[in-house]
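Chain A, query sequence.
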Amino acid sequence: MQAITVILCGVSGTRLWPLSRYGFPKQFLVLSGTNSLFQQAVDRINAIGTNDIDVGRTIIVTNEEHRFISLDQLRELKDVSATLILESAGRNTAPALTLAALYAGQIGGEANGDPDFDPILVITPADQTIGDAKAFTKALQDSVRVANTGAIAILGITPTTPEVGYGYIQRSGVAGKFNDYAVVKFAEKPDIETAKRYCESGEYFWNSGMFVLKASVWLAAIREFRPDILEATDKAWQKRIIDVNVDVTGKTAFIRPDKQGFMDIPSDSIDYAVMERCPGSNFSIKMVELNAGWNDLGAWDAVWQAGSQDGQCNVVSGDVLLSGTRNSLIHSSGRLVSVVGMEDTIVVETADAVLVANKSKSQDVKQIVAMLEEQKRDVKNLHRKVARPWGWYDSIDEDDGFKVKRIQVRPGASLSLQMHHHRAEHWIVVRGVAEITNGDSVVTLTQNQSTYIPKGQTHRLANPGNELLEIIEVQSGSYLGEDDIVRFEDSYGRS
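Chain A, predicted structure.
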């Protein structure tokens, strides 16, 4: 059996603000262990190979804005060969899976020299945690074997509480050969009394959002139930662009469906578009039970629940001091955070925002995010420290007419050749060696040396050395927004 793993990496995680933001969403955060949720998902799903299950290339479907974060985190993993399919806008999970299925069938078939190549797709979101890796692997292997029969397999989570925030799956009472059960129906997020009845019945399980099925089965199902999604997605796919020089290792590629065509794709989820319509149809859908300490980390109370709790049931991260505090989550990104006499409290500190919330109101963080959106505040989407394909910048101070940034450039990397209409810049090297293009001149500067870039001057910053380069940039001008950049040349396809 040939399996291709698919990581759906398009979530925004607004209920985990201020740590999770659009520019660096929750799947790329390290909330447990030493790897990000995205890295954990890649490692976990690729560990299902056995003598009868051959796991091939990994497909990552993510937002174009997150391509370099994804690539950087993939490079930290060992022996991962991945293709990144880049969405130009959010269109939910049904179009994302359709793109993955088109790639798996068309490109995968060409690579294997088999026009009838029909791999089994093992699909998982990028933002979940699993406590029992062995049980997870076993459930996925059973699901692959179910999918090999032509059925759709969905993983159902054994409920531990009457949860009102999840959809439910009702299964039949007779197990199949691979610990699978026929799906009777799907149920929407219930009220508390209905959720209690579901849990007491033993027939209902949480919908994990993890699916296993053949690429051909998904394409047939989306053609049956949502032909408009398939038609629009296929049009965007046929006009795709492939970046062949993204990764010098040759292990990773970017595929961009046609941008305008992608905007025309109807938005819908895998569940609504297909799965909920399968019971009673010509498509066989089975549920495999997963009892492995699953958590989707949908809000801060879920992060607390999944975290390592101390003797007072507190989950602590960073520079934190507590006194008389219980059942709380305290996260410090940098500064000392001290908490006294609190219970059932969430405190999250970042460089530019602090959240304090009652743990029972964790879901309401999205209301704060909505207020920030209404006020058009950058703190909703971007951290003070912003990842870039060449490194990062940290906006350490600003006021009317000026902004100060700390910029780090990786060895061998460079910013784009660019200019600004509204600002001048003064660069001071504080670490490493900088190669600076300033108009027609190219100079090399070292620690404590500086240069001035006039407004309207074409310029570029590069790191030609083997060590990290850091500079302090002082901007001055009438407008200092990030959109005042005209790129002439760029190593990362942004010009």
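DSSP finds eleven helices and 28 strands in the chain. The radius of gyration is 25 Å.
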